[in-house]
Amino acid sequence: MNMKQYVVIGCGRFGSSVARTLYKMGHDVLAIDSNEEIIQHVSDEVTHAVQADATDENSLKSLGIRNFDVAIITIGSDIQASIMATLIVKELGIKYVVAKANNEIHAKLLFKIGADRVVFPERDMGMRVAHNLVSSNILDYIELAPDYSIMEIAPLDDWVGKTLLEIDVRSKYGVNIMAIKHGYEMNVSPIAMDRIGKDDILVVIGHNKDLEKIEKQVW
Ligand code: ADP
């Protein structure tokens, strides 16, 4: 795997989870937060943890931020600090900047000042939980773009025992089955003759409107 250097700015609930996970995966992680207690808390689980104000360009410069491959700005509640930190890391030349937004306006601002990707962890998790609550057959729901998503579902009753060719979701619903999970195994390039088992899980990709048609059948 290509190991990269990540700087995580803001180590609240979301930021510290991103930082810990990247570190566990073997990457170099610098965690920055203005709160000393929070820094002490994460210091054993990242490469370096430093207390600094991310809205202070000189502090970030002195930490050598420009040498990092990716910056993740996870300051959420203080929108002004989130915007300033994003602007500074972008101006320092970090190639890929991911920022967390609290709402659509915040996201727009982040994109305008150069964020390469904006994430909405609370909104996305809310959506995933809501889809799963509506039907226990919908195991997960991940938005890819405003109108397109990936949905993990248990097969409809009349799909069980049939092949992908027979259920023909492409022409019936306009969606594609990307993968079939059988227990711990995963068929990531299913073919027309693959047969769907009762306990399989299907990973389906499509337009939200088309996925909704399938969702309604499993309610
Ligand atoms: P979460 O909901 O993920 O906990 P918050 O926005 O509440 O997100 O927390 C973001 C973190 O960012 C907090 O730990 C806070 O101390 C930190 N933070 C806020 N402003 C700054 C700043 N100017 N510089 C560095 N860290 C900051």
From TrEMBL:
Domain RCK N-terminal per the UniProt entry, residue ranges: 3-119
Top-level taxonomic group: Bacteria
Pfam families with a match to the protein in the record: TrkA_C, TrkA_N
Domain RCK C-terminal: 136-219
Species for this entry: Alkaliphilus flagellatus
InterPro entries: RCK_C, RCK_N, Trk_Ktr_HKT_K-transport
PANTHER family: KTR SYSTEM POTASSIUM UPTAKE PROTEIN C, POTASSIUM CHANNEL PROTEIN 2-RELATED-RELATED
Protein name: TrkA family potassium uptake protein
